[in-house]
User: What shape does this take?
Amino acid sequence: MLALIDCNSFYCSCERLFRPSLEGRPVVVLSNNDGCVIARSDEAKALGIAMGAPYFQCRDLIREKNVAVFSSNYALYGDLSMRVMDSLRQLMGAGNVEVYSVDEAFVSLQNLPENELENLAINIRQTVETWTGIKVSIGIAKTKVLCKVANRLAKKNKEKSGCIYILNTNAETREALSQTEVGEIWGIGYRYAEKMRQLGIESALTLSQMPLEWARKNMGGVVGQRLIRELNGDPCLTMKDPLEKKQMIGTSRMFGKPVYALQDVREAVATYTARAAEKLRRQQSAAAFLEVYLVTAADNRFTYHPKRHSLSVRLPKPSALTNELISYAMPLVETLFRDGPKYLKAGILLGGLVPEETIQGNLFAKDPKAQLKQLMLAVDNINFSQGNEMVKYAASGLERSWKMRQELISPRYTTRWKELFEVR
DNA sequence: TCTGGGGTCCTAGGACCC
DNA sequence: TCTGGGGTCCTAGGACCC
Assistant: This one.
């Protein structure tokens, strides 16, 4: 059996942790640039504020209902996420925990007798809440997809379930699937849900009874087949090795306001390259492939149809050095950039990742880059301990008229001395 | 006026090679 | 009229996730 452990309204819970007065009051958290709503407390959901709703569209409702609004504070959420995951690792053994996202983890429950599952789940819930202050919901079943189904039901009726839902028998599984709409299944997005509805497939139970051959033709090949097998209790998605490294690393941002000048775009791309290079070094990889992309507004100003323009290079040798990566990125920016269009966003992708130690050096010559590697290490250490971008590259600019907006951000209570929670 | 950021996996087609 | 088969690498794009 597997368990999916998922924090309840995670970002909102983080904000509430340090402002108990928000308990019972609706809370929402906005995306970067304060663009749209990406987290809602139960009270905010009840008001009908949709996930992903543009902020400007629900601003009136938010004001009227006295909803507390926050810009996203990733330093805070990241730190609390780490505490929750560490708690799970302590309880269940590090090798049994797969962190799936900032607020979710799969836990393997091999060889546990069925009648102990519920007590275990209760214990996990209570311990995590005591240690971190964060409430979680737990779904237990035979496969990852079924765990997701169970977890959803646990959250749907918290009073009744106690935030725990277990699918032990086939009858329980059938019942759960019949209560789940196709669009709510993990792996069925907007497009497929639409397609299913047209075909008259409405519940997860109906979908689970479709033939595999049909899934291959209509649901993206092997992906769809796996999904149907998972719904039937046949595990196809295995637990991932916690030590696995990312295969691609990217950094991108919308600009705080539209940008028209080459210099601004250059600065932004240099900044993002430095960020991506940091992530690269954190997992001890080097990149052999680099892509820069710029997003412009559509010509038609009545619709929101941004256009993506990209260029890429293959590096002669994989690198994890910020200055080197910037020097490959800048010519791409210059080639891509045109005078005239309104630029909304820029980003960089690093791919072809290889472990840093496999990069071939010359055995006999002194590595000319050894000093640069030392420098990177020092820069990363300073930025980690003193705050992001304490040390930065000149190419990434000082003025930064393009920087994103975060007008409603809360203090970084747990990761900055200056912003610690104060008790008077 | 105002619509996030970071990923994953898969497929298809073209270039090139033997 | 006829025109191999199979492999790799790369790019582009679609679909999905939180």
